[in-house]
Amino acid sequence: MNDIDKDRAEENFRRLEEALQERLPVVRQPHLGYGVAFAASAFLLLIVATLVLSAVLGSHDGKLQKDSLEKIASLPRMSVYAMGVGYLGTLVWSFFLYPHFWKRPYFDVLQWNFAAVRRYWLLLLTGGVGLSIAAGIAERFVSVPDTAPMNAFFKDRADLWLITIFGSTVAPFFEEMMFRGYFLPGVAIAFDWLRLEHSDAARAHWESSSTVSLQAVVFSGIFTSIGFAALHASQLANTWGAVFLLFCVSCVLTSVRVRLNSLAASTLLHASYNATLFMVTFIATGGYQHLEKLQR
């Protein structure tokens, strides 16, 4: 076969492939199953990482002491290490595996859309600062117990630096991907599918369109924001006022994600929000040098 015949054959194959794709039903992605698998993986990896790291750091002379294991596992920094393993491990395998099912690039399916960040980056950064200030004012009317697990990070300078870096980078990236990258569209798709009429016309529309209804988006936004707040509830000793505040913050992040059609935009806003909270603490304690001021 000469080069001309080879080019014609490749062109005919491409046209045939496009024709077949046009006949196939539209597959809405990422559906809820991908989000559930993503979250379950992070949870399982977090547990495994906690057990392994606690066992390694709690062993003495090759022997594992029960009291040492419990003490190591309870350290605030241990939760950060375990979350880091769980989050990054999940991101790595999903990045390489999911595109094989989607037949599309990973960040295209999740609607990363970094162009929105290039256009609105200053507004997103200042929006994160403003959101954190508003949350800080609201927190004055909420009483979180001193025994809340989150407060444990504010007693040691090294732990506080660790959670500052993690909470301003890895955490917002992963949480946005899980809640507004996977679950927001996944729940919306499931909502519309459950409401789908049992008719040929409705089925034909479902197979020819990838859009979701406004009702589905609103329901999914509220539902996933409840999940976002619930994820952090234990860190705040289940203080309902603080949990509701996080729900409101999540609704704002969801609105930005939907309005700009950009997961990157809500991620930058989330990171700016978290970083500002830590920056206020950094300034108030003289660069984390006087943590006793936080106990007053």
TrEMBL record:
Pfam families recorded: Rce1-like
Keyword Magnesium: no
Record carries keyword Membrane: yes
GO biological process annotation, one example: proteolysis
UniProt xrefs under InterPro entries: Rce1/LyrA-like_dom
Occurrences of domain CAAX prenyl protease 2/Lysostaphin resistance protein A-like (ranges): 159-275
One Gene Ontology MF term: metallopeptidase activity
Transmembrane residue ranges: 32-57, 78-100, 120-138, 158-174, 212-233, 240-260, 272-291
Keywords, sorted A to Z: Hydrolase, Membrane, Metalloprotease, Protease, Transmembrane, Transmembrane helix
Domain of life: Bacteria
Name of the protein described by the UniProt record: CPBP family intramembrane metalloprotease
